[in-house]
Design a protein that fits this description.
It contains 24 helices and four strands. By secondary structure, it is an all-alpha fold. Helix 10 packs across helix 16. The strands form two sheets. The protein has a two-stranded antiparallel ribbon with strand order 1-2. Strands 3-4 form a two-stranded antiparallel ribbon. 64% of the residues lie in helices and 3% in strands.
């Protein structure tokens, strides 16, 4: 954040740095997504959001699970994790689409408090960094196989190639995802069609596959639990879907069917295709195992190439490499975009500065590149298995607030994300997540025996979901709001705008608070960045906005 005058000078108007002031690039990061900005149809928003699930880490994750634990335990683990992810994703997707907020703002108002959600911002940012590094590693492997480019240079190219799309925001991302979708779908389907036509008996052989580590083809509860834990690491993907769903147009009587179809498909619906890709990736790895070996069977490019060779012959390598590159551009653009939002949310609250979302694209990509160079892909199962314990505790706590606490009146029925109305920490969601994460991590490292070690992510989910209503009742919900929002009343027009008394820009009513220090309206981001008010509004009480309201046209 760049200001022309200091905060102490009440007559000064905050001036955002050029990149932060450009909403075509900034995409209302850290803010409520204004109705006037949501210019895309439900179909375009859904297509853009679903473009992010082009990632091939699903192939690697599915292959890793089935090769480690066998077909029966591995596939059941993938399907069970998909059910959990879908069920928890429905209320989160609907809330973000309806309220025009991203995952961080939703978390603030769903039981974590203003600073309590900084922890989840880092959890979410780590999700985008981890998966950017895994997807970038896969692209680097494709560059090496197809062009002979050394992996370290390939990793750098895989990082640089997504920057133009991620830097320019939703407009550029939507176009890229729409234009590349037909090629990606064709490339995704092709290897399985080839196998079905040329080697249909391999499907039956795959169903009896016992893995490469002696797990056997029968069911193992421990293998099922461990595999499910790896697959559940993807539960944080709902946050990336929500980053696009916040741009959904307002639901009306005319569009409600298409609205709900888009929300369900682009929100939790991603996991249906995701689970299919994991199982498909395991199948391709199984088919290529005898040719490329276990190490390369876990790298999606090699099994994919072996599958399409019979149909494409001499151009198979070129097509396989092109498919991998397109897939990784689609997903890593989303990883970089969502990661920039999360890092910006974290640092704006901690440092009271915001230089612009685009700078955090570089932070996200830089950390991910370092992980690639250090060989993060080789520790896939361990990284994801540990991470899922924290991610599922977070998602479970948010989901419990939306489906239990709010309907029962234990928390406000709307999503309040502005600093002016929130306590710094709400023990309901924040406490539930911390306790659930701590217990499950201890279990993950074997403190409670091998069974709970295998099922530690489910333990985290149960504790988080049970903890939210229990703590909401124990605290009587008093930590959800520091004071009532007297601005956004039920009869107020949410599209009406007020001019922020700090930056001088107009913002729609859901993004505005009444500021005691300014004695007038303040936008949510200026409120976040103020480091001298000492939360005066919480003791001084509500103030009249006092300025004329501009009704949006």
């Amino acid at each position: 954040m760049t200001e022309t005058l200091s905060n102490a000078e009440e007559t000064a108007k905050r001036r955002y740095a050029p990149l932060a002031a450009n909403e075509n690039r900034e995409d209302y990061s850290l803010r409520f997504a204004a109705h006037s900005f949501r210019k895309w149809s439900p179909f375009v928003v859904a297509t853009t959001a679903l473009g992010g699930i082009a990632y091939l880490a699903d192939f690697a994750i599915g292959a890793s699970i089935v090769l480690s634990y066998g077909f029966t335990s591995g596939v059941l683990a993938i399907l069970a994790a998909a059910v959990v992810i879908f069920v928890t994703g429905v209320p989160i997707a609907a809330a973000c689409a309806k309220s025009g907020v991203d995952m961080d703002l939703l978390t603030r108002g769903a039981g974590f408090g203003y600073f309590g959600s900084t922890l989840t911002s880092l959890v979410y940012a780590s999700f985008t960094v981890i998966f950017f590094s895994l997807e970038g590693s896969i692209m680097g492997q494709a560059f090496e196989l197809a062009l002979g480019i050394p992996l370290p240079i390939g990793y750098l190219l895989a990082t640089l190639i997504v920057l133009p799309f991620a830097l320019y925001g939703m407009g550029a991302v939507a176009k890229m995802q729409t234009w590349t979708q037909p090629l990606w779908i064709a490339g995704l389907v092709l290897p399985f069609v080839v196998v079905l036509v040329r080697k249909p008996g391999k499907f039956a052989e795959f169903a009896h596959f016992g893995g490469t580590e002696g797990a056997g083809s029968g069911f193992s509860a421990i293998g099922f639990g461990l595999g499910m834990g790896v697959a559940l690491s993807l539960i944080g993907q709902i946050g990336e879907q929500a980053d696009y769903l916040r741009f959904m147009p307002e639901k009306t009587a005319e569009n409600k069917r298409s609205w709900w179809a888009a929300v369900l498909a682009a929100g939790p619906g991603w996991v249906i295709l995701g689970a299919a890709k994991q199982i498909g990736g395991a199948l391709l790895a199984f088919l290529a195992l005898g040719v490329v070996g276990k190490t390369h069977a876990l790298e999606p490019i090699a099994p994919y190439l072996e599958a399409v060779k019979p149909a494409l012959g001499p151009v198979a390598l070129t097509f396989a490499a092109l498919f991998v590159v397109v897939s990784q551009i689609k997903i890593n653009t989303t990883n970089a975009y969502s990661g920039s939002l999360s890092f910006a949310n974290f640092f704006s609250r901690v440092l009271h500065k915001h230089p612009g979302r685009v700078w955090y694209v570089l932070v996200n990509c830089g950390i991910a590149l370092a992980l690639m160079e250090f060989g993060a892909f080789g520790f896939l199962n361990k990284i994801l298995g540990f991470y899922s314990n924290v991610a599922i505790a977070w998602i479970g706590a948010v989901c419990a607030d939306l489906v239990i606490a709010k309907p029962l009146g234990l928390s406000p029925r709307y999503i309040e994300f502005k600093r002016a109305y929130l306590h710094k920490i709400n023990p309901v969601g924040f406490g539930s997540m911390v306790v659930a994460s701590a217990v499950s991590i201890v279990a993950y490292f074997g403190a409670f025996g091998p069974f709970l070690a295998a099922f530690s992510p489910l333990l985290a989910l149960v504790i988080a979901i049970a903890g939210v209503p229990a703590l909401a009742v124990a605290t009587k919900g008093k930590y959800y709001l520091a004071r009532e929002n007297t601005v956004l009343t039920p009869d107020a027009d949410p599209r009406a705008t007020h001019t922020c008394s700090v930056c001088g820009d107009p913002y729609e009513l859901p993004d505005v608070a009444d500021c005691a220090k300014q004695d007038g309206p303040i936008c949510s981001l200026c409120c976040t960045l103020d480091n001298s008010c000492h939360d005066l509004c919480r003791t001084a009480g509500p103030v009249s906005l006092g300025l004329p309201t501009t009704r949006a046209t």
